[in-house]
């Protein structure tokens, strides 16, 4: 039958079963062969899906704005002062904490006016 018949294998037997799945040193594993190989997958998989009558569904990609809207219900490009849509033009890397705090204080002061 199989190894799954015994319900309580000893520790040694369990280790032998686990180690039987570890390949020997310098053993070349073939993971993807034929239509799943890296070289052929892009050209052959659509043909296989067509022959099987399956529909190819493209993976959805989410950007930062879509994730913020979905999870936090907040549009990160909506201006907190006037409500207009802001346009991302770039960022400044390496701002010090003091400059960030002063920028936030300026926004708070402008918002309270």
Automatic annotation (TrEMBL):
GO molecular function, one term: DNA binding
GO biological process: DNA transposition
The Transposase IS801/IS1294 domain, residue ranges: 10-39
Pfam short name (any one): Y2_Tnp
UniProt-recorded name of the protein: Transposase IS801/IS1294 domain-containing protein
